[in-house]
Design goal:
Order of helices and strands: HHHHHH
Largest sheet: none
Helix content: over 70%
Number of domains: 2
Number of helices: 6
Number of strands: 0
Shape: rod-shaped
Structural class: mainly alpha
């Protein structure tokens, strides 16, 4: 079965040889729209790939690009999918911020707050399926638990 784009190209070539300029213009406009749609689809696919790779900032940028590309051709059919991608990317960015906050809190020995932030980040990463960052958050929490145990032993021993 021939591809529609190939058939359209063939039709355009044939129309160029005929006096049917109006039909030729419509066919050329359709081909341009088809190419723009394919480009929008490719951008949306790259947003999904960025999500799978846990590159949340890149995913959000690609979602914005895809929205503009679809809007340029008046296609709103992918908006719900793009909204899901954007929401997941924003959740990932927030989880990254929570993990950064946990590290900063740990550095200032605010162990209970750091542990809570690490737990929140680990939970969010788990829900997103981001195992690498979930494990980073869990490792930080484990380190915080060790610090808390050592501090407790020191208090018992010295106190």
């Amino acid at each position: 079965m021939p591809r529609p784009k190939t058939e359209l190209n063939a039709a355009i070539e044939w129309l160029r040889e005929t006096p049917q300029q109006e039909v030729l213009q419509e066919a050329e406009a359709l081909l341009i729209r088809s190419r723009a749609g394919q480009q929008a689809n490719a951008i949306a696919a790259s947003a999904r790939e960025a999500l799978v790779a846990a590159d949340y900032q890149q995913a959000l940028q690609r979602v914005d690009e895809a929205r503009r590309a679809y809007a340029a051709i008046g296609d709103v059919r992918q908006e719900q999918v793009l909204e899901v991608y954007a929401a997941r990317a924003q959740r990932g960015l927030r989880a990254n911020q929570q993990l950064d906050e946990a590290s900063q809190l740990a550095g200032s020995f605010r162990i209970p707050q750091a542990r809570a932030a690490a737990d929140q980040a680990a939970n969010e990463f788990a829900q997103l399926g981001d195992n690498q960052r979930m494990n980073e958050a869990l490792a930080l929490r484990g380190s915080l638990d060790n610090i808390q145990r050592i501090a407790g032993l020191a208090l018992v021993t010295l106190g």
